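Example record for the data management plan.
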Amino acid sequence: MIRKHRREASEIMHAGLAAAALAGAFLLRFEFSLESEYRRMLWLALPFVLAAKTAVFRAFSLRDLSWRFIGFADLSRIAAANVIASGACVALLRMGIGSAFPRSIYVLDLILCCGLLMAVRAAARYGSERRASRGPRGARRILIYGAGQAGRMLLSEIRANSGWSGHVVGIVDDDPAKFGQWLNGARVWGPGTQLAEIARRKRVDEVLLAIPSAPVATIAAILERCHAVPLATKIIPPLTELVKTRVLAEQIREVRAEDLLGRPPVRLEEAALRGALTGKIVLVTGAAGSIGSELCRQIAHFDPRAIIGFDQAETALFHLEQELRARFPRLVFHAEVGSIQNPRRVAGLFRDYRPQSVYHAAAYKHVPVMETHLFEAIENNVFGTHHVARSAANFGAETFVLVSSDKAVRPANIMGASKRMAELVSLAMAAESPGTRFLAVRFGNVLGSSGSVIPRFKQQIAEGGPLTVTHPEMQRFFMTIPEAAQLVLQAAASSFSGGPSGGASGEIFVLEMGEPVRIVDLARKMVLLSGLVPGRDIHIEFTGIRPGEKLYEELSAYEEDTVPTPHEQIRAYRGRAVSGAAMRLCLADLRRFIETRDAAGILLCLKEWIPEYNPSRTVLQRVLGRPASMEAGSRLAVAAAR
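Corresponding structural encoding:
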């Protein structure tokens, strides 16, 4: 009933407090001994005061102020309303009673009325927050890690949110200056090193990490302490993920593997991206894959004229089309099914849509699989790239971007060698087609992509382990799918804008991947994220290096010269010049070797064009054991031994 008539109840409350303030002012002025003359003056003044203050308080909308969420701005409004109301009272009382009214009453009434309105509302908020902080019976007992701005905001939101099911029992922070302080009713109990003792003493159920700018080493150390207790742990996202339009408490989530990678946040130059994408027709090959689909999502934000998604996986392509139509109703998206290995299909695609920007993400990428499928790797990764690049040049595309891999640097496997050949195809096309900018973008492993290590570790943890790692010193570069796609677009836009790198065709861009991560360390962190203890609950086993694998990957070869770019997270390399005529002869040889199933001939051609390529023992044994080309096999054995 009170909620239904909240505004009327507020006005009655304000009137009662105004009357009490006037009576209190008289009592204070005359030391709690009112003669009959001043009692009569109080009763005469009361209607004038109530009328003036009610009108002014209504004009300042004090009846609409929230009682539970009173803040500094609201207190300022209350103070201003009381000053104006007191001025109105002076005018009315001067006219109604005259100069006999004691002037000191005006000052005392202003102070008392303002103080009472503020005190009652502050008490209402305090009582509401105390009830919320205690939470319902059986509520989770929460410890906030971090007494900085994020921690204070989170605490205030939890206290003000009656729907929050947790009860904050305190805060921990590693700053000694904050030990023992009280923040909005919660005490800072001590540093994170005492987390286990504090959690035991306060019977903590869950820790909320409110340190969005903390380095990854700090997050990992806190996570280990929490799971040693054990305690459930959630986190406020990094600053780059926080949504300013949403309350902080709603953005709390589970700790993810990418929180422990320590990568610098991606900085996008949106002006350059808009210049490269807005109003353009954009083709994305491999659009149904992890990188290709994210490229489509990112491009859609920049209002392209149309996106053509090309892939042979028709089911995944269908799901992508449905997603994009739901998220971007105004986007023109064409889902086209086909293979980059079919040159007629690729040429027809360009003829129909005339794309201005091409992002070529279609590729066979799984290293162990490609070690046993040499012909398919060359057919798809090399010739498929050539088909798309040639059509881009023939039909006047402005930009062709090859999504490459760090495995193309001094390759030790078929997949890496085929991607390096794809880069060389792009460089050769750049030399012959000045009307189209050809460039390649290299990056390392992508977290969460199909076939990546993270989904495999999650599955193994769900099955109770063990987690399988090939070698204790195996390490890789990692980045998330969204930032990989963003940096691919940024690299293309940097070339497009003609920055310090010159915007020249034939560049190879390398994304800043941060420090390499040991796979065994990532496995341990994945176990911790699952609330388990490595070595006790889940064991890690080493299975040995697989064919074609290297202990570590590189992003550039020694002979490649660095060229600066406008973006600190992108570097450019100028590779060696590649003759278009020589590349055509190479492709003709590769085509002949594929048709005759001459694996030794293919490897010899790869070795000739990529001298740093070191075929795996598995591939050499399989190839040299075939009778298809004994002469080529002998020459290959000599070349591999150099």
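Summary line stored alongside the record: The domain at 270-445+479-513+550-578 is CATH 3.40.50.720 (Rossmann fold).
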